[in-house]
Specification:
With 206 residues, the chain is mostly helical. The protein is 70% helix and 0% strand. The protein contains nine helices and no strands. The protein has helices spanning 7-41, 49-60, 63-76, 82-98, 100-108, 111-119, 131-152, 157-167, 191-205. α3 crosses α5 (100-108) and α7 packs across α8. The radius of gyration is 21 Å and the shape is globular. The relative contact order is 0.09.
């Protein structure tokens, strides 16, 4: 017997499949929001392995899923506590290392600019409390950027620009504070120059 193709039925099936796909995506996004809410509310010093594994699994499904993870992580980097931002940053680092699509999104669609603003300002006073957590956030962000640049900087110019920006202040020397990957609190007289440097870096990363 010869099967016949019914364009009306095929269109209806396609429409139903599309709706099912959209419902599945909505469900995954809702789950992802819940996972990231758990991450940023946690008082633990690190993201739980099971939570991290599930976030990675969602991001791995497709480019569209990676985009959703990326969007929600950028939201999480604006959390009102430094600890919450730090934990979101840990997830960013894990996905940056793991996913070429995530790296592309971070470098080419403004993610590094958000990172600079929310995790790497010139002064700790620009980060949410506590001061100790803010310092840990900024040092971790600088360390992650250095690692990313070593591994992936050759193909990501915005990442190299950010790394260059972070390394520039170390030429001034300056005591105190310990190694923050080139990021350190600045004296009052240095703020204007650092602000100009950040503005220029923001412009280049845009």
């Amino acid at each position: 017997t010869q099967s016949t193709w019914d364009p009306i039925l095929s269109f209806e099936n396609f429409g139903e499949e599309k709706k099912n796909g959209e419902r599945l995506m909505d469900g995954l996004v809702a789950r992802l929001r819940g996972l990231l809410a758990d991450v940023t509310r946690s008082s633990l010093p690190a993201v739980e392995d099971a939570v991290m594994a599930e976030i990675k699994a969602i991001a791995k499904v497709s480019r569209a899923h990676t985009q959703q993870v990326y969007n929600l992580l950028l939201e999480a980097l604006h959390a009102k506590s430094a600890l919450a931002r730090h934990q979101a940053l840990v997830v960013v680092d894990a996905l940056f290392i793991r996913s070429a699509v995530f790296r592309e999104l971070m470098a080419m669609t403004g993610g590094l600019k958000v990172l600079l603003r929310t995790c790497l300002p010139s002064s700790l006073t620009e980060l949410p409390p506590t001061r100790q957590q803010a310092r840990a956030l900024r040092e971790a962000a600088a360390r992650f950027v250095q690692t990313w640049t070593v591994r992936f900087g050759a193909g990501l110019k915005p990442l190299r620009l950010l790394s260059d920006h972070l390394s520039t202040p170390t030429s001034s020397g300056g005591g105190g504070g310990g190694g923050g990957g080139g990021v350190r609190p600045l004296a009052a007289g240095e703020e204007t120059e650092q602000d100009r440097r950040i503005a220029r870096t923001q412009e280049l990363l845009a």
